[in-house]
Design goal:
The chain is an alpha/beta fold. It has one domain: NAD(P)-binding Rossmann-like Domain (Rossmann fold). Helix content is 44%, strand content 14%. It contains nine helices and eight strands. β1, α1 and β2 form a beta-alpha-beta unit. α3 packs parallel to α4 and α5 packs across α9. The longest helix has 20 residues. The radius of gyration is 17 Å and the shape is globular. The protein starts with a strand and ends with a helix.
Length: 271
């Protein structure tokens, strides 16, 4: 079986998915996250379950780090690999990277594209699954403000940056008809994503008690990964949990798609 690359593997949905896939004894798992100790512990657990896994520590907090990570992965995985984009950031405050870009815009959008490009250039990928968010329907892209967080919001920025990546992956699918690409809302899952300090964080933790466990979501994703095909060649379909749905209206808006495409191309070619 070909390799499966899983980003954001050290916690939450990624951690649960790694364990769910380990029990199937199928693909070798190439586990990616920043925390080497957590990754090593996860590799050991996967192997105890009879699976195969290796740790590839990496960071998506800058284009340079993402580029280096992509090169390491391209040297590690075999052709025909599946890439699961699961890493993500829901920021509580505006922070800029050394490149002058808003952190979530980089982690959720630009850096995954940079990392992925090295794998595409090396001919390593056959399938790409994007763990997105139903909240993309609330997204709005402002070419002058979103990349630098000029329109920062503790909620809207997450929606905006997830929308950007979903749209970019539709373009990737169109440019690479040899790939099978799907973008999905995984469910409303109880993880640390979006955790906040203070009263708001306490209230959110109470609300999350009613959300589904990461293990439930992981089982769903494992079933999707078992499908023979996700999307027609040259397209990326949109799933809400396990059901295909029409793309949200904002993801069909041609002006938005063009603005994201042009801005992304400019930022990816910048030094």
């Amino acid at each position: 079986m070909a390799d499966l690359i899983l980003t954001g593997a050290s916690r939450g949905i990624g951690h649960a998915l790694a364990l769910a896939l380990a029990e199937k004894h199928a693909a070798r798992l190439v586990l990616v996250a920043r925390d080497r100790a957590r990754l090593d512990a996860l590799v050991a657990t996967v192997e105890q379950k009879g699976g195969r896994a290796i740790a590839v520590p990496g960071d998506l907090s800058s284009k340079a780090e993402a580029r280096a990570l992509g090169q390491r992965l391209a040297e590690t995985v075999t052709p025909g690999a599946t890439l699961v984009h699961n890493a993500g950031l829901w920021p509580s405050k505006r922070e800029l990277t050394p490149e002058g870009l808003e952190a979530a815009f980089v982690v959720n959008h630009l850096a995954p594209l940079v990392m992925q490009q090295a794998l595409l250039d090396a001919g390593r990928l056959r399938r790409i699954l994007v763990v997105s968010a139903g909240l993309i329907l609330k997204g709005h892209f402002d070419a002058a403000r979103t990349p630098t967080g000029g329109d920062f919001s503790g909620i809207r920025t997450y929606c905006n940056t997830k929308l950007c990546f979903a749209l970019a992956m539709r373009d990737v699918a169109a440019a690479h008809p040899e790939l099978d690409v799907v973008v999905l809302h995984p469910g409303v899952v109880r993880t640390d994503l979006g955790a906040r300090p203070g009263p708001l964080g306490w209230l959110l933790s109470l609300v999350k008690r009613g959300w589904e466990a990461p293990e439930v979501c992981a089982a769903r994703l494992a079933r999707i990964l078992e499908r023979e095909r996700w999307s027609p060649a040259g397209e990326a379909r949109w799933l809400v949990e396990e059901q295909e749905q029409p793309w949200p209206a904002v993801a069909q808006d041609e002006a938005t798609r063009r603005a994201v495409r042009d801005t992304t191309a400019r930022l990816l070619t910048a030094a």
